[in-house]
Design a protein that fits this description.
The radius of gyration is 20 Å and the shape is globular. The chain has an eight-stranded mixed β-sheet with strand order 4-5-9-10-11-13-14-18, sandwiched between helices. It has a five-stranded mixed β-sheet with strand order 2-1-3-8-6. It has 370 residues and is α/β, with parallel strands linked by helices. It has a single domain, classed as pyruvate-formate lyase- activating enzyme, CATH 3.80.30.30. It contains 15 helices and 18 strands.
Amino acid sequence: MTETRYFPDKIFVDKQSLTFSLTERILKKLAHIPVEIVPDSDDVIAHFKKERDPLGEGKKHMLITRQKGDFVKPCPCTPAYLGCNYFIINADINCPLDCSYCILQLYLSNPLITVHANTGDLWRQLDDFLDEKHNRFLRIGTGELGDSLVLDHITARSTEMIDYFRSRPSALFELKTKTLNVDNILSARPSDNTVIAWSLNAEKIAQKEEQGAPTVRDRIEAARVVAERGFSVAFHFDPLILYPGWEKGYEAVIDALFTAINADCIAWISLGSLRFPLALKDIMRKRFPSSRIIYEELIRGEDGKLRYFKPLRLQLYKSVVDWIQARSGDRVPLYFCMESGEIWKKVLKKEPKGKEAIEHYLSLPFGYGR
């Protein structure tokens, strides 16, 4: 199980972020990397946006700055489909991995690997947010605008976050990754309300469409080690992608997953199929000319995103769910990301009455809401 860890070619530091303890820790850790202090991070972003491939160049550089807005936000989900009442923490944004289907290529206006170093504001905002919602259970995590662990050897955010949420038992905290960067996780004391999650795909898709990411089998091995340490783990098969031989590819990954990890250690598995806004299609075509996934038969969904025809999605979901349930004994909670109640009903034989119902369903294995 090997992985080449990310290090930037150069670090830009917003001068107003120089005195933050996280900034000092990163610069000490990366003392061998050139640093430029800049008066305004917006100028750096504007410079990189002029590059021929802003995203490709931005991934080679780190920007340390402040989060000027809210660290904590509701997951945006998508109109017309069921959400799961998830909340996201935007501590770091962008990702040095380069997945062809990644929505961040379209969504983010800042192409650099960006660390928000004002962690004092993060803790205050989390305190306020969780105090306001103290009378309810909620799911919250990082990993929406960047991989949760890909920078962890530099920032060590994971252990700080685990320790913080240990004292907040009404919140279920999730770290999502495609990496093997779990050394800090393994050094931390397991917490009942922390879940470490991996995005998985068929190995052929991972090799072709997830540049820079480790093999799927190595991700599963990392999850096995973390589960043995005492953490709950979770998995996200998203996006599921149709390709010649997809049945064998996905069944093989599910076999490997349940051979390595006891179903009782798995908090949940989410499922979602390939979907993206029309505007992402041109970006994918230019940045990943060898990828064929945008040339499948796709239609506009109710949210305006391109998706597989419903019969194809149903076939894909039913097959994957059958393989999971056959190997898990139906012990692992499954849920869909950005799908309709009809898909839930036809595949999982349940039709949640809104996002609160999905939240409740996913909380039950942790003893909430009984």
